[in-house]
Design a protein that fits this description.
The complex is a heterodimer of chains A (95) and B (486). With 95 residues, chain A is mostly helical. Chain A has a domain at 5-43. Chain A is 32% helix and 4% strand. Chain A has helices at residues 5-14, 24-38, 73-77; strands at 83-84, 87-88. In chain A, β1 and β2 form a beta hairpin. Chain A starts with a helix and ends in a 7-residue tail after the last strand. The model of chain A has no long low-confidence stretch (mean pLDDT 93). The radius of gyration of chain B is 21 Å and the shape is globular. The termini of chain B are close together. Chain B contains 15 helices and 11 strands. In chain B, α9 (302-317) packs across α12 (369-392). Among the domains of chain B are: 6-250, Amidase signature (AS) domain (Amidase signature (AS) enzymes); 319-375, no CATH class. Chain B is of the alpha/beta class. Helix content of chain B is 38%, strand content 13%. Classes of the chains: A mainly alpha (95), B alpha/beta (486).
Chain lengths: 95, 486
């Protein structure tokens, strides 16, 4: 599977990554090589095999929907780039 | 002091022949001298360690000590540690001070273990050489021109160089076992769900598992007694009883059936490693085990399946780094989209970006069936193959890696060549099995690792075999040259 520069930019946009113009050829080469490598899966004998999402093949356990405080809002927000009155600040969304 | 196992250090503490403060000081002094040459640590917090040692000595004096109270440890910088930087080897989390402890960190703390520092690693645990760290390369103690392996390269190098007597790591596709093999130490990847993932920064949630890197199997057993067990805070933690991992270390290997897959000895394996592993298998035969040829025909498919599943999970997990709530934020974002894109692009390294993009692509509309669904089917195929093999034999034996350690910078431009380094380890994660790497010889003065794989929750069996092997061999006692200098 050979990706084009446009494919790389589309994937980058979906992944919320900015790729510099100069780096596009490297991404085209490396991502194409990886996709070519995984194409080995096309020959796999997987007819009638169900997909496996969990390595122990079990359903994930759930718990009662009770809030459990692991830490405080204040301690958590100490790591935030910008907060005000307990709210996270981001650039203006609606112009 | 620094060359002692935690089994020995624990005995010295119990006999009151030394104190935790004395042991801790000794390791901290050694780290000051040696670590500038290895770069095994991202954070060393001497005050924190010395206070913990003081507390451990008091606890022992008060008669409240546990087996590992006062024993130093280093955590891979992927385990959240309250009040301490937890970077995951990334620029993204360079400013992140964890507000809580991972369960592994907390269990070690509650046992009275002394945290010496946080070890270097490939960024977000993505890598097999520790060359993808924001904090620079880690050097292999056996030869500083070579890689220590990855992603738990800092932990492996630190144990091999005796900067810490034991360390934690995580293993998503071989990240405990491969660096353990490259650095000549013991590394155990437990069953998926055996050790809590709570507070362990997520890379690929259906594959990640924490475990010990140690000098001996007996030491790994002691640490497993502390970190293994059910954790309600981790929805993937399994609620089943935990044995005393030290209780069966001395069990006889009489009657043990060992399977040797022919696919693990095919092209690409260094002939010196093949010979060393065959010699090791004979050693186990002498201890009473029987050797059986088995086949795992789809071994080669494990790497391509992994390189869809792991990036898919990574692209989802790493979506949380958005420059809003924690982590790196770019300067003067023009709008929200610019904030996301520049924060992520400026703070993630090349390999992380590559994997996010592969994962995003594999999960995108129109490609899901062709990649992700197919990889999940191959995952079941591989898992069934291991289950069939483990019906015939008790454990599977082979090399941990196809080569010994390689030169720094020699594979960084070729991701596929780097990925193939994990050919013998990756299937174990896809199948959720436990596996251990044990030192089993040398090739050109570099350590060789032997891998043993067992069925789910049979870590005690692996530790028993590894321990018995270490009673009749001395590969695990060999030390890099630098250890004789300080």
């Amino acid at each position: 599977m050979e990706l084009s520069p446009a494919d790389v930019l589309k994937i980058a946009n979906l992944a919320k990554l900015h790729i510099e113009e100069d780096d596009i050829p490297d991404y085209v080469t490396n991502l194409s090589k990886i996709l070519e490598f995984v194409e080995q899966l096309n020959g796999a004998p997987i007819e009638n095999i169900k997909p496996m999402a969990h390595p122990l093949d079990v359903m994930q356990r759930t718990r009662a929907d009770n809030a459990v405080a692991v830490t405080t809002t204040k301690a958590t927000q100490a790591n935030a780039p910008e907060v005000e009155n307990g709210l996270y600040l981001v650039p203006q969304v609606i112009e | 002091m620094h060359d002692k196992t935690i089994t020995e250090l624990s005995q010295l503490l119990e006999n009151k022949e030394t104190s935790s403060q004395e042991i801790t000081q000794s390791f901290l002094e050694r780290m000051r001298i040696i670590d500038p040459h290895l770069n095994a640590f991202i954070t060393i917090n001497e005050d924190y360690a010395l206070q913990a040692a003081l507390d451990a000595d008091k606890r022992r004096k008060d008669g409240n000590a546990q087996k590992l109270t006062g024993i130093p440890i280093a955590h891979k910088d992927i385990f959240c540690t309250r009040g301490v930087k937890t970077s995951c080897g990334s620029h993204m989390l360079d400013n992140f001070i964890s507000p809580y402890d991972a369960t592994v960190t907390k269990r070690c703390k509650d046992a009275g273990m002394v945290l010496l520092g946080k070890t270097n690693m490939d960024e977000f645990a993505m890598g097999s050489s520790n060359e993808n760290s924001f904090y620079g390369y880690v050097h292999n103690p056996w030869n500083p021109e070579l890689v220590p392996g990855g992603s738990s390269g800092g932990s492996a190098a630190a144990v091999a160089a005796s900067l810490t007597p034991i360390a934690t790591g995580t293993d998503t596709g071989g990240s405990i076992r491969q660096p353990a093999a490259f650095c000549g130490i013991t590394g155990l990847k437990p069953t998926y769900g055996r050790v809590s993932r709570f507070g362990m920064v997520a890379f690929a949630s259906s594959l990640d598992q924490g475990g010990p890197l140690s000098k001996t199997a007996a030491d790994a057993a002691l640490l497993m007694n502390v970190i293994a067990g059910f954790d309600p805070q981790d929805s993937t933690s399994v609620d089943t009883s935990v044995p005393d991992y030290t209780a069966t270390l001395n069990d006889s290997l009489q009657g043990l059936r060992i399977g040797i897959p022919k696919e693990f000895f095919s092209d690409g394996l260094d002939p010196e490693i093949a010979t060393a592993i065959q010699v090791a298998a004979k050693e186990l035969e002498k201890l009473g085990a029987s050797l059986h040829d088995i086949s795992l025909p789809n071994t080669e498919l494990s790497v391509p399946a992994y390189y869809i599943i792991a990036p898919a999970e990574c692209s989802s997990n790493l979506a949380r780094y958005d420059g809003v709530r924690y982590g790196y934020r770019c300067e003067e974002p023009k709008n929200l989209d610019d904030l996301y894109k520049r924060s992520r692009s400026e703070a993630f390294g090349d390999e992380v970006k590559r994997r996010i993009m592969i994962g995003t692509y594999a999960l995108s509309a129109g490609y899901y069936d062709a990649y992700y669904l197919k990889a999940q089917k191959v995952r079941r195929l591989i898992s069934q193959e291991y289950q069939n093999a483990l019906q015939q034999v008790d454990v599977i034996l082979g090399p941990t890696t196809p080569t010994t350690s390689f030169a720094l910078g020699s594979k960084t431009d070729d991701p596929i060549s780097m990925y193939l380094n994990d050919i013998y380890t990756i299937a174990v994660n896809l199948a959720g099995l436990p596996a251990i790497s044990v030192p089993a010889g040398f090739a050109q003065k570099l350590p060789i690792g032997m891998q043993l794989i067992a069925n789910h929750f049979q870590e005690a069996k692996l530790l028993n075999i590894a321990h018995q092997y270490q009673q009749v061999t001395d590969w695990h006692k060999r030390q890099p040259e630098m250890n004789h200098q300080g």
